[in-house]
Fold this sequence. Notes:
By secondary structure, this protein is an alpha/beta fold. The chain is built from 13 helices and ten strands. The chain has one domain (21-326): Aldolase class I (TIM Barrel).
Amino acid sequence: MTSTLADSVALPHGPAWANRFALAPLTNVQSNADGTLSDDELDWLVARGRGGFGLTLTCAAYVAPEGRAWAGQLGIAGDEHLPGLRRLAESLRATGTRSAVQLHHGGRRADAPLEGRAKVGPWADPAKATEALSTEGVARAVADFVAAAVRAEQAGFDGVELHGAHGYLLAQFLDARSNHREDGYGGPLEDRIRPLRDVIEGIRAATGPDFQLGLRLTPEGYGITLGEGRETARQLLATGLLDYLDMSLWDVRMRPRAEGYDGLLIEHFTDLPRHGALLGVAGGVLTTADAQWCLDQGADFVTVGTGAILHHDFAARALADAGFRTRPRPVPRADLAAEYVGPAFLDYLAAGWDDLVA
């Protein structure tokens, strides 16, 4: 029997989510220069908690200074970030939503001048001024993710999501084109998956039985074939350690880019054994019908990005109205500001999104 969007959902660890909507971990460049939480970022996220999302995810938060990828990025790299994170976790909890921090390391896509450090990645890339991580450096990066998860738990969040997508550090290890390391972290797919597996196992061992652990993956692209993207998802679900897998599909109705694959991209993941975990999908969900279609295809929950920028209460509106559609774009800045999109976020959207800000 197909689930409905209003159904609550239980996870292997921690509290149930009230419904099948999750806020996407959207880059919003609103944090303070030192990575601490700003009032604008707090207001943005808490409004989405009030707006009915079952799970509210932060933006990608850097786990180490050398992994910071843009100005205005939230940090969870040191105890100096804890006071703001505690404030955020407490404020989200008061809205009734569940909360998670997305843990991120930019790797070779980091912005080195922000921290005055060298960029690091799975392989050396002089064109991008990137140094190859040593074997010990990989272990340190794994430890940074684990330590960040422990901070999130200390701050009071319900869980964390690992950013294993979009060509950032954990996804860079999956890149078959360039990751030819010979130390057990490159070459065959099983070894390229190892950093992700080490992080997942480390977090599960270092956090409590009620702490939730999710993972975001890219299905194909960034050096990942669809076959390997599917196999990566299958292997990591089979660990039994994940509470959910969040597949970033760009568009939930997208077809595979590679030749030789039939059907829709979503269909190559909904049939995988889940071992108790939930499967979420993201990409182009702008109506109630879009979201329910994802559940009808076999997903357990829907991650909403653009729709949640346009309406802080997208989830509540969709749950109340089967015919709900987001407002037409582009949208006046004043209207987005009324949705708790702060000035820095507005400038970022206006510069990078063609049709969002009027």
